[in-house]
Amino acid sequence: MRGTTVEHLFVPGDVVRAAVAVSVVVGGATLGGLAVALFLLALGGALVPRFLGLPAVLDVCFGGCLLLAAWAALLRWYEAVPWLDLLVHAVCTGLVAAVGVLALIRWRVVASRVSGGWAHAGLVVTTTATGALGAVLWELGEWAGYTYVDEEIRVGYADTIGDLSFGVLGALAAGVVLAVQQAGRRSDDAR
After folding, report:
1. Based on the domain organization, do 106 and 191 belong to the same domain?
2. pTM value > 0.90
3. Residues 186, 113: contact at Cβ < 8 Å?
4. Are 117 and 70 in the same domain?
5. Domain count along the chain
């Protein structure tokens, strides 16, 4: 393995992925098949930043948020702490949007280096749109879960609109962060 270091074999996000993998087993043994399915979905998502080689902070935050969201749903934390649902939708959707846009950049669907106000605004819009799509898919997943799997999954007009609203706000915030980072890189490159 020429040129490979320990840092390339192990990244901090791997600890989070291991926790999600353990949750598949523990959750399945204690909470049943729905827990297994939910944690496998979280594990699949947590693998994406690793395959894309995204920064460690984003990798850990993304996987950790997915793990928290899954446990919160299964342990009914959203019912015990009503504002937690909106916070998780905002943070997770923002992270999904950031990972999604960085994937699009890696695949050269979106330009990797943007300059100027309009280009940065375009990055914010692209990130917000990516997050909005993620938020809609999440809500469709909740509806499908309620309809076909477990009627105790909370759905309803007010819940869906709140979740979508906070998801889009989280994606907008992620877009602003990505645009600011791009602007910072651009000014560093100019020096």
Report:
1. yes
2. no
3. yes
4. no
5. 2
Q: Do 2 and 46 have their domain in common? A: yes
Using CA atoms, how far residue 183 sits from 71, 142, 175, in Å, is 36, 37, 12
Find the domain containing 55 and state its range: 1-75
Cα–Cα distance for residue pair 62/45, rounded to 1 Å: 8
Residue type, 76: R
Quick one: DSSP state of residue 112? S
| Distance from C-alpha of 29 to C-alpha of 23, rounded to nearest angstrom | 9
Query: Which has the closest alpha carbon to 58: 108, 111, 98?
Result: 98
Which is it for the CA torsion 83, 88, 91, 96, positive or negative?
negative
Q: pLDDT tens across 1-16, in order?
A: 445 555 567 789 999 9
- Tens of pLDDT, residue by residue over 95-118, are 999 999 999 999 989 877 666 667
- Quick one: 81 and 169 in the same domain? yes
Inter-residue contact 58 to 87 (CB < 8 Å) = no
Helix (H, G, I), strand (E, B) or coil at 160: helix
For 171, counting Cβ atoms within 10 Å of its Cβ (0-12 exposed, 13-18 middle, 19+ buried), the class is: buried
